[in-house]
Automatic annotation (TrEMBL):
Residue span, MobA-like NTP transferase domain: 9-169
Biological source species: Flagellimonas oceani
Cited InterPro entries: MobA-like_NTP_Trfase, Nucleotide-diphossugar_trans
Descriptive protein name: Nucleotidyltransferase family protein
GO molecular function, one term: nucleotidyltransferase activity
Alphabetically ordered keywords of this record: Transferase
Cross-referenced Pfam families: NTP_transf_3 (PF12804)
């Protein structure tokens, strides 16, 4: 897949997991942490430009997880919100490859992410050429999502806790979606963790 277009992958994993009280990146499901699962699904697709954005408790996370296949960047402003991680991830990807065509953003707490979800997103983005292709789960639209270079300036203008979903409100922002049936399940609370444990069997 990496030969089809110049695509960077950015895994956003800098958040503080305040509602959970411990790093959600290190919650285990089916024998591996949620962050490892995300990184493994990405790793199967052969992308060369892979960025991991860490922030809160990054030393603890780095002590537990092999990140050698990713370029790790620490977001010292992670408390300012998601926008800071999106921007530092994109800026790092562009520094690695100035002629970047697309960037694919993921988060680290979607336990049911599969590489087929990513393949569908990339295929739609490359064939239909919108500014972005988002995942859709139920009535929600979100990550993983892939953005073409026309969207890069818009991503770099995000502020605070704005995610890239806010770009959908722009009048001239054309986008596509691909279904990710279980994408709406993420891990924010201890109740979510317990529910996830019950799904291991």
């Amino acid at each position: 897949m990496s030969t089809e277009a110049n695509i960077a992958v950015v895994v956003l994993a800098a958040g503080g997991s305040t509602r959970l009280g411990r790093p959600k990146q290190l919650v285990e499901f089916k024998g591996k942490t949620l962050l490892e699962h995300t990184m493994d699904e990405v790793g199967m697709l052969g992308f060369q430009n892979k960025i991991l954005v860490l922030g809160s408790r990054h030393e603890e996370i780095l002590g537990r997880i092999d990140t050698s296949e990713f370029k790790v960047v620490i977001n010292g402003d992670w408390e300012q919100g998601m926008a800071s991680s999106i921007k530092i991830g994109l800026e790092t990807a562009l520094a690695e490859e100035r002629e970047l065509d697309h960037v694919l953003f993921l988060v680290s707490d979607q336990p049911f992410l599969e590489r087929k979800n990513l393949i569908k997103l990339v295929h739609t983005q490359l064939t239909k050429r919108p500014k972005a292709t988002y995942s859709q789960y139920g009535d929600s639209i979100g990550v993983p999502a892939i953005f073409g270079k026309a969207a890069f300036p818009l991503l770099l203008q995000l502020e605070g806790d704005e995610g890239a979903k806010i770009l959908l409100q722009l009048d001239d922002f054309n986008f596509c979606t691909e279904t990710f049936k279980k994408g709406g399940f993420d891990v924010d609370t201890e109740e979510d963790v317990q529910q996830l444990k019950q799904m291991e069997v």
